[in-house]
Amino acid sequence: MEHLSNKRKITIMLAIMSAMFFAAINQTIVGTAMPRIIAELGGMQYYSWVITIYLLTSTIATVMVGKLSDMYGRKPFMLIGIVIFIIGGLLTGFSKDIAQLIIYRGVQGIGAGIIMASVFTAVGDLFSPRERGKWTGILMAVFGFSSMIGPALGGWIVEHMPWSWLFWIFLPIGLIAFVMILFLFPKVDQKSNERIDYAGSIFLSLTIIALLTGFSLVGSGDDFTWTSPEIIALFAATIVFLIIFIMVERKASSPVLPLSLFRNDIVVISNIIAFIINAGMIGALIYIPFFIQGVEGVSPSHSGYVTMPMSFAMVVVSAVVGRVITKTGKYKRYGIIGLPIMIGGMLVMANMTEVWHAVTAMTVFGIGLGLSMPIFTLTVQNAVSPRELGVATSSSQLFRSVGGTIGIAVLGSIMQSRMVKEMQEQAAAAGGGGSLEGMDPKVAEALAPLQSPEILLNQPELEKLLHGLPEAVRPIANGIVEMVRTAMANSLSTVFLVGAGLVVVAFVLVFFLREIPLRTSNQVPGQESGEAAERTPDKMPSNMEGAH
Asked: Helices 198-217 and 47-72 sit at what angle, rounded to 10 degrees?
């Protein structure tokens, strides 16, 4: 679609941005409200699963759509993704327990994966790599804008309305996005001569499911530890499915994820960096509401305002950086600058003791995020030929999603184990003051809910419990609450430190990323047309050979 007029491209981008905003706002609006939802539905031990299932299904959908959209065009998949997302959002609002919430969020994840994969790939269809910097920055700004208004709006809704409206309020935007894509997005000729790689799709999906399920189950209960038979079996299955997948892909005529991509050092290093960044970033940011609402006792609506500076900083910086990348064609420097700033923000998170510390951390983190996040999809798209644009983009999304899912699972497991240890240490330091043993059974029963971290995430319920206790028991109750609050704060510090350590590894890898000039056309040098390439084989610039 590179040949289209600039006016036509802008109208198509408006349609793409509407789909992007619809998917993004439905993700960001949930973050600050999720602790309250979990507190109402119960199932604190399954908290990470609500996030994990969404990332799991979106990851699988992203990979599948990458190759299929190369074959059949982006438009039908964007439309299908929007419909699935609308259905998933509608069902999620009707959830009666944590199991239904997890299942329906999984449906939403399928729609989100299809939309996100199609959106970023469509930008590659419309613009040359050099121009993509600007438009990728704008898409990141759209996501940042949704991140800016989503948390605050989500917190306000969960305080003043039934939480189901979190998933229903923006469904009309989905319908608008559907209509815009339907009428504005052009059709693309199908590559009917290519066969769908069913076997590769199946074994890649099985590999992802076994891997992410294994990581997600660890720490979700006493029966699932790193050495439990179920976890070992899942990781063993991951290896077996991966080996079969590689064998299938080596013989496939049109592989769902071509192994040739991983012979390109730029693709490999970019995807590893994206994997590590998301493991540290998403895994850590998921738990920011725990500090703001649980430790500091801030309401969900005001909690959203605390995270707003991060989104604002990301919107401004990513938009500016995108335009500068388009102008200069240079991108590596922004990773080298941005990642240390992200690390600094996470170190502030690890040491925050007041709300304004969290605001500062969010601002610094947002600046680093805006500088570095747009880069690593751009590097992958620039390093492959246009015919591989879909699978290359989906590979980038795959590594990001898997990294985020594993990060949530591992950091969630760290937080759970650290909470248990901290509770024991706090109880020992209080001389047994946190224990209910030896108390009157009725008093012990009334105080038992205060020992659960869930109670800190539902301030109205906590206040109701405290006011319902006899005056003589309240000092003991306040001591238990403070003990749980301290344990949560210390465990969160550990989570943020581990996240910062992961981003340090990504920062080191940036120095090994080979920077090649951003092309000013979607046509790869020497491949302007098959005939021309055959007639003038000597004219392909030697400095670009490594990019393909």
From this structure: 160
Task: Report the C-alpha gap between 433 and 334 in whole angstroms.
Answer: 51
pLDDT for residue 95 is more than 90 = no
The reported pTM is 0.73
CA 134 to CA 324: how far, in whole Å?
8
What is the 3-state secondary structure of 280-303?
HHHHHHCCHHHHHHHHCCCCHHHH
Per residue in 354-406, pLDDT tens? 888 888 988 998 899 888 877 887 888 888 877 777 788 778 878 887 888 78
Distant-in-sequence, close-in-space partners of 356: CB < 8 Å, separation ≥ 6? none
Which residue pairs, CB below 8 angstroms and at least 24 apart, start in 326-329?
Answer: 326/130, 326/131, 326/132, 326/133, 326/134, 329/130, 329/517, 329/518
Choose among 85, 109, 93: nearest CA to 167.
93
- Mapping DSSP onto H, E and C, the string for 490-517 reads HHHHHHHHHHHHHHHHHHHHHCCCCCCC
Using CA atoms, how far residue 529 sits from 1, 30, 194, 210, 477, in Å, is 16, 48, 20, 43, 76
DSSP state of 191: -
Q: How far is it, in rounded angstroms, from Cα 376 to Cα 238?
A: 26
Instruction: Output the DSSP codes for 228-283.
Output: SHHHHHHHHHHHHHHHHHHHHHHH-SS-SS-GGGGG-HHHHHHHHHHHHHHHHHHH
pLDDT band at 547 (very low <50, low <70, confident <90, very high): very low
List pLDDT tens digits, range 280-323.
Answer: 777 667 788 788 877 877 776 677 677 778 878 887 888 788 78
Query: Residue 219 region, left (φ>0) first, then alpha (ψ -120 to 50), else beta?
Result: left
